[in-house]
Write a structure and sequence with these properties.
alpha+beta; 209 residues; 4 helices; 13 strands
């Protein structure tokens, strides 16, 4: 209850001071240790991921003589040394509190990860959707990021968790309804690395009539 009141108060503060505050974000830490980002459109979201520099390939593959010049290194090695690809990981709080993951909301539509089903090496996912929107929703698309049990990003994929059938109104997602998605297949996830079922969702598109 205290956390909800705190978020509500801070959102109100943003609204009152929007003319003088930067259009970017403000971060706060809740009582449970989770960080929350307040946005300039008066919404908020948990801070669940962080970007870290990848280990230098040259440092792990070989020990370079300190007397060697960069010019003497192979061009591919120089490029690898100059620009390592950043790695996206979950924050320590997200790993410790996985209940913060798996749910997202936008424009009065909420999407939650419901369950995972494996058939051999292929992953199937079900989602639950709820609407408080006055519009009849025909499409909900999310960006799903899959993280390994140690918090490293495995894959990001866009999924149409709700897709109505043309000229079939009974397939629209309507106000007050709670519906379950069809089973959606995802390839390229290693079952051995995804035992904790860490998935982060973000709604990227909503279509309605």
């Amino acid at each position: 209850m205290q956390t909800s009141l705190r978020l509500s108060a801070l959102s109100s503060l943003l609204w009152l001071s929007s003319s003088v505050m930067a259009a970017d974000v403000a971060n706060i830490t809740l009582d449970n240790g989770a960080q929350v980002r307040l946005k300039d459109d008066f919404t908020w979201e948990y801070v669940l991921t962080q970007t870290q520099a990848a280990p230098n390939a040259l440092a792990t593959d070989a020990v370079i003589d300190s007397s060697s010049s960069v010019a003497s290194l192979p061009s591919a090695a120089v490029a690898s040394q100059a620009a390592a690809t950043p790695v996206t990981t979950l924050t320590a709080t997200a790993i410790a509190q996985p209940e913060l993951l798996g749910s997202t909301a936008k424009d009065d539509i909420k999407v939650s990860f419901a369950e995972a089903q494996w058939k051999d090496d292929k992953l199937g996912l079900n989602f639950e959707l709820a609407s408080t929107s006055n519009k009849h929703v025909t499409l909900v698309e999310v960006e799903a990021s899959f993280f390994s049990d140690n918090g490293t990003l495995l894959k990001t994929e866009k999924l149409a968790v709700w897709e109505a059938i043309f000229r079939m109104p009974e397939t629209y997602l309507r106000k007050g309804e709670q519906r379950k998605s069809s089973l959606l297949g995802v390839e390229g996830i290693d079952k051995a690395q995804w035992q904790k079922q860490l998935i982060n969702l973000k709604i990227t598109e909503i279509n309605s009539r």
